Structures are given as C-alpha cells and as structure tokens.
Amino acid sequence: LLDSANRNRLMEREDQRASWAREFKVALESDTWGQIEEAREAYLLLASKIKNIHDQNTFQCSVTEKALLLKMASALTLRAREVKDDSDCGVGKGGMQQMAALFNKILVQVQPLPLFPFTLPNTAINAVAEPLSVVDTSEIEGGSLLPPLTLQHQGEQALSIHIEKWGFKDATVFIDPFVSVTVVDSHSQLIESQQDTPSSNRSKPNYVIFGTMVHLQTPVSTMRPGTCIILELKHFKPKKKKVSTKAWAFMELEEFRNKHQTKLMLEIYQKPTDLKRKKLNLLSVKPLYLHVELHTRVS
C-alpha cells in the first residue's frame, strides 16, 4: 500500500510538472514572437499556479524545493513586468530561456535538486513570498476586487476564480467591459459583497480577455447547499450613458466544492440575470463560453 501511495504521489508530481512545462513553452513562444499581452498573461498565470502549490504545500515539498518554487514564481512575475513596461528587472528573455530546463526537472528530480540558473534580487523573492496571489489587484487599477481570504480555522477552504475570457461573436465592440461576481445562497440572497473586476481593453476575435483573479470572501467549507456564484459581463453604453449587463453565467456549489485546480467552460446566458436560475436562455448557438480556472487553498 505504501509503494502504491508513493507511486501515485510521483505520478501526480509528474503530471503537474508536465502541465507547467506546456504552459511555460506557450508563454516563452509568445515572448519570443513579441506577443506582449499573451506573454504577460501566461507568465503571471503560471507564476500564480506555482505560488499556489508552494503555499498549499500540495506535494509536501522540502524546504529547498519550496525555495526553488518561490524563485521560479518570482522570475516569471519579474519577466511579466519587463514585458509590460519594456523595463529591465534582471531577468530578460534570456533568463526565461535558461529556466526552460527547470521545467523538465522540477517536482520530479529531488536528489540532487536542480539549481536555479541565475541570481534574483531578494526583494523580488520576498515580495512573491507574501501570502497573496501573484496575479492580484496590486498590478491593476480600477474595479473593487478584494485580497485573498484569510482563513481562520483548520480545514477551511478558500476559492479564487481566474476569469480568463468571455466568448462573444461581437467581442471587439464593447466599451470598458468588466465582470461582476456575486455569491448568493439558496434563497438568492447575497452572502458577501459583490466584486467588480477592472475593465478590460483586450480582445481578440470572439473573445474579451480578462486574465483577472477574483478572491471569494466566504470559505467554501461554510457554504450551504444551493450556494451559487453569478458572473455578469457588463459594459458602458455611451448613448444611454449607463453601464449595462450584456450576459451572465453561473457556477453551482457542486461545480467548485473540493476542487483543487480546475478549468471550466461555462455556458453564457441572455440577460436579464436570474439569480434563481429558472429562466435560462443561451446567448448564442455558437460554441462560445466563459473560460475560468478555479484555485482553492486549504488552511
């Protein structure tokens, strides 16, 4: 039984390593081709995933393994800043290329542990070591997003939702689109304050791009049956001089409880938003969805 458990742990580590390696390859390719927004988003998302594994100690990493994970998350975050600002934080595209070999070894080679290929400033490592998501509101202006939930009791579970992109056939026409996130109980009553993301100025054919993390403020472990997360895409209408809801989507408790890290494609519905989820009419017959990724943290 012990050997079987060890094999399973090794397989889980390898699966995670392979997933990170694929994402890093995509990020580095975007960086190489000068696709600034795509590279920045991919680097920050991968940094947040590595940081989550570090914080949750999912694989019971050694102290030196955790230090290496922090350095990787720090380097990815610094490179994202360089890409965004055309600045020099001591990483560069060359640093990313040097890191490629790490993604072939991290989590699976522990004796000897692979070495980080270059020196990072301690200030950068210390910043990422703080108990905040790497993709957080500190880099983004606007919106009403809140910091990660502070868990008070053993076994509590916090949920963060990475809103990746919304699918629309007319995705490029919206003015200042943003997402409102609401959590309601079985009686459609709010159980925490609504959060709004900053508005997005990024789009591509059929998608409004966000790449924003939203931290729910209620422990998932305390949510009762019937709890639901409502996500609404809103935008500004200059002729009416008001913000209007374009469409909405939702996740029920069973879809996000006890999930460590899960990608979901949610169906998008026509307005008006129905908190009771009784009147559901798809916005489009085309296969266009709201893409989200769930991140959980357990105390």
3D structure, described in words:
This protein is of the alpha+beta class and about 300 residues long. About 30% of the residues lie in helices and about 25% in strands. The chain is built from six helices and ten strands. The strands form two sheets. Strands 4-5-1-10-8 form a five-stranded antiparallel beta sheet, covered by helices on one side. It has a five-stranded antiparallel beta sheet with strand order 3-2-6-7-9. A hairpin with a 4-residue loop joins strand 6 (about 230-235) and strand 7. The longest helix has about 30 residues, at about 1-30. The protein is globular and about 60 Å long. Mean pLDDT is about 85; it is low at about 130-140.
Topology record:
Layout: H1 2-32, H2 36-56, H3 63-85, H4 92-99, H5 122-129, E1 157-167, E2 178-184, E3 195-196, E4 202-204, E5 207-215, E6 228-237, E7 242-252, H6 253-256, E8 261-266, E9 269-270, E10 290-298
Antiparallel strand pairs: 1-5, 1-10, 2-3, 2-6, 4-5, 6-7, 7-9, 8-10
Helix pairs in contact: 1-2, 2-3, 3-4, 3-5
